[in-house]
Amino acid sequence: MDLTDLTIKEAHQGLVKKEFSALELTKAYLDKIEKENKEIFAFLTVNEDLALSQAKKIDDFIAEGKKISILAGIPCAIKDNILVKDIKCTAGSKILENYIAPYDATVIKKLKNQEAVILGKTNLDEFAMGSSTENSAFGPTRNPHDKSRVPGGSSGGSAAAVAGNLCCFALGSDTGGSIRQPASFCGVVGLKPTYGAVSRYGLVAFASSLDQIGPITKIVEDAKIVFDAIKGKDEMDSTSLNSKFKIQKSKLQIKIQNLRIGIPKEYFVKGIDPEVEKVIKGAIKKYTELGAKIEEVSLPHTEYALPAYYIISSSEASANLARYDGIKYGYSKFKIQYSKFKSLLDVYLKTRGNGFGDEVKRRIMLGAYALSAGYYEAYYLRAQRVRTLIKEDFKEAFQKVDFILTPVSPTPAFKLGEKITDPLTMYLSDIFTVSVNLAGLPAVSIPCGKVGNLPVGLQIIGRAFEEEKILKIGKLLEDYELR
Fold first, then answer.
1. Active site amino acids
2. How many CB atoms lie within 10 A of CB 136?
3. Distance (Å, rounded) from C-alpha 99 to C-alpha 118?
4. What does the pLDDT read at residue 132?
5. Angle at the Cα of 87 from the Cα atoms of 82 and 91, rounded to 5 degrees
6. What span, in angstroms and rounded, lies between the C-alpha atoms of 67 and 450?
7. In this structure, what DSSP letter does residue 20 have?
8. Minimal CA–CA distance to 261: which of 398, 422, 407?
9. CA–CA separation, 316 vs 394, rounded Å?
């Protein structure tokens, strides 16, 4: 039995039945990381000592006959923009190359309370800005399905780690598709929760009104287990709140025959890979075979979502990243050499000029321009108005249907280097995912087929705080594939 193939529940049952120990499980993953991470480069930091000490603790609990939680002893990976105390948190940037997290993010506290084993920190596009994990200052991650291709981004390291069985599950962050798109490219499950469903405290901020932490897992059931562990209100994050919706387990199963599923006509347009469209339509057909009713819906402001997203996210990034000035945060080697600088401005310019990569600089400049005097109303304010219209589109659509199904990405995973020199082409990778972030809704990417050997994901979008419902709909497809 290969221990790295197990799902969360299978690993939990194996630990409880003493078929293997938490140390054996953790060592199996650490051995695999040692053998394969050099090629895939999913991990930036591996915390072997911490992981083994956490695993030993679980083995002691089990030996004493204590009951353990479902995540106890389960090895996981954390995107390197989420703080884990006393471990490096680089956010994929040279400017934070030597930054050691002084505290745990709330989601990490919750995982530690569940006694999960943290294997290490995964690679990402710098400050989560990108769709391919090629913007990392430390090198690109490769897709385990085809190592000449990208794993998607910005949570490419987390998705590749799960797809390559280098961890049992991972946490990522999603600002405009950064969990769902890499999950689609790597053939795993990626859940972007409702904005506010999971605390952002301890997440390195990119765009504060859009960022959300969520799980990347092997199967749908695992996504629900991890989401249940990390969700909930946090007094350290004023935007977090408790879900008001209680879903009875039997409800959805009873109503499956009458489910109304919406297919937005704006998502099946020129530009989508014909083979991807074929796979997605095949997945939609499976829902009709299960008894769901398919209806065409319209999200008329979809075409404006991408420009609105990039204006809003870049504007928020330009404000959030102002703290990296070489004094509060920044190159430590610059911090101790003030005598070499002529002025405080010189410190700022050298730190930010050398510390930030091209994509981060591009977005800071775009955001600063959009917020500047004379342009604020023309760009940022107008983008926020478009955001309101997009929210209204979804609100109207959900009066007619229960769920909305779309592609996650217009193409399967593209080759490394294929789009990195053309930012606009790269940005189009997010065309089907950014609307969900602008509207603050939950969405999940479910593997639904392949184009050649490259996975394709189906996006299931639900009403706010209906994570459990969209995961159940995803499980229907997962179970159908296994029949």
1. 79, 154, 178
2. 26
3. 18
4. 97
5. 40
6. 41
7. S
8. 398
9. 24
* Fold designation for 3-230: Amidase signature (AS) enzymes (3.90.1300)
- What does the pLDDT look like over 3-43, one tens digit per residue? 999 999 999 999 999 999 999 999 999 999 999 999 999 99
Helix (H) or strand (E) holding 459: strand 454-461
Q: pTM to 2 decimals?
A: 0.96
Helices (H), 414-466: 423-427, 434-439
Alpha-carbon distance of 32 to 395, in angstroms, equals: 46
Cis before 93 (ω within 30): no
Query: Which pLDDT does position 249 carry in this prediction?
Result: 45
Nearest in space to 408 (alpha carbons), one of 221, 214, 185, 134: 185
* Residue 76 three-state SS: strand
List beta partners, residue 264.
297
Neighbour-count burial of 177, counting CB atoms closer than 10 A to its CB (0-12 exposed, 13-18 middle, 19+ buried): buried
CB count in 10 Å sphere of residue 67: 8
Provide the residue ranges of all domains of the chain, joining segments of one domain with +: 3-230
In angstroms, the CA 182 to CA 178 distance is: 7
3-class SS of residue 95: helix
pLDDT digits (tens, 9 = 90+) for 320-379: 999 998 888 877 555 556 567 788 888 888 889 989 999 999 999 999 999 999 999 999
Question: Residue type at 254?
Answer: I
Pairing, β 293-297 against β 213-217: unpaired
Mean pLDDT by 10 residues, the chain (483 residues): 96 97 98 98 97 98 96 98 97 94 98 98 98 98 98 98 98 98 98 98 98 98 97 96 56 66 92 95 95 96 96 97 86 59 84 93 96 94 98 98 97 96 90 97 98 97 96 93 71
- CB neighbourhood size of 255 (10 A): 13
11: left (phi over 0), alpha (psi -120 to 50) or beta: alpha
Place of tokens 């969209």: 470
Helix, strand and coil content of the chain, in percent to the nearest 5, comes to 45, 15, 40
Nearest to 443 by CA among 428, 458, 455: 458
Task: Give the β-pairing of 260-264 and 293-297.
Answer: parallel
Which residue do the tokens 């008329």 mark? 300
Give residue 202's region: left, alpha or beta (phi > 0; psi -120 to 50). left
Q: What is the DSSP secondary-structure string of 331-348? A: -HHHHT-GGG-SSHHHHH
Q: What's residue 340's pLDDT?
A: 73
Residue type, 392: E
DSSP string of 177-225, one letter each residue: STTHHHHHHHTSEEEEPPTTSB--TTBPPS-TTT--EEEEESSHHHHHH
The crossing angle, in degrees rounded to 10, of helices 8-16 and 220-230 is 80
